């Protein structure tokens, strides 16, 4: 089951087929293709921010949050865990919730993404309900960045902008019991790096990314993509 959330709350709830008919969601209009935003993404432009953002070298070296979602995988190697096909979002999603408040500035968002070593984060309102998704690609949009010779005040103005001005909204989300294949289809349709996992109350329960799915494909326990 998929939902779409925006600044006005939940705008849609239904199946993948219904979601693909929702105007605007299938394309998520942007001025350019998404840049890589996963942990394996190059994100070369991030290094140019210098004093304005945390150095890319300070990114977290570990991937504990995502690995914890798949920690059961390693248990299978010693035979302590019964192997079972992985078919649902809850099998793969990262339960570590890294989110941004809708009151955050661009600078604060950069600091969170850098410190946590992630390429995107759901944006939530004061009641912790999903309202959007912010990615590094949104932050690095060339049409939004001041030119290299711009006055420092132009960069300061950018960093003090509210994240709601540049985040993706409305944004699709997925329920924990949804089929992984259908999530993969939405990621292909929208070009997003992942989807927030949201409960029935609209509260973010986790995140499932392209890298979560790819990691599962190459891991020993069975990932049931065809059943």
TrEMBL record:
Domain CBS: 93-150, 167-225
A Pfam entry, by short name: CBS
Keywords: CBS domain
Superkingdom as given in the UniProt entry: Bacteria
Name of the protein in question: CBS domain-containing protein
Species of provenance: Rhodoferax fermentans
């Amino acid at each position: 089951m998929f939902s779409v959330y925006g600044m006005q709350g939940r705008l849609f709830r239904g199946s993948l087929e219904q979601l693909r008919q929702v105007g605007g969601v299938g394309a998520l209009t942007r001025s350019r293709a998404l840049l890589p935003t996963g942990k394996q993404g190059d994100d070369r432009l991030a290094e140019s921010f210098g004093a304005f953002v945390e150095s890319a070298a300070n990114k977290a070296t570990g991937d504990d949050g995502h690995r914890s979602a798949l920690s059961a995988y390693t248990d299978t190697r010693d035979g302590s865990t019964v192997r079972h096909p992985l078919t649902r979002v809850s099998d793969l999603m990262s339960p570590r919730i890294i989110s941004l408040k809708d009151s955050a500035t661009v600078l604060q968002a950069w600091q969170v993404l850098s410190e946590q070593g992630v390429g995107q984060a759901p944006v939530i309102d004061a009641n912790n309900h999903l309202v959007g998704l912010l990615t590094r690609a949104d932050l690095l949009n060339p049409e939004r960045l001041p030119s290299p010779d711009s006055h420092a005040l132009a960069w300061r103005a950018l960093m003090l902008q509210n994240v709601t001005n540049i985040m993706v909204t409305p944004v699709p989300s997925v329920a924990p019991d949804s089929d992984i294949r259908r999530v993969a289809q939405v990621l292909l349709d929208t070009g997003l790096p992942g989807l927030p996992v949201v409960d029935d109350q609209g509260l973010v329960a986790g995140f499932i990314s392209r890298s979560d799915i790819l990691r599962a494909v190459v891991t020993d326990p069975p990932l049931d993509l065809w059943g």
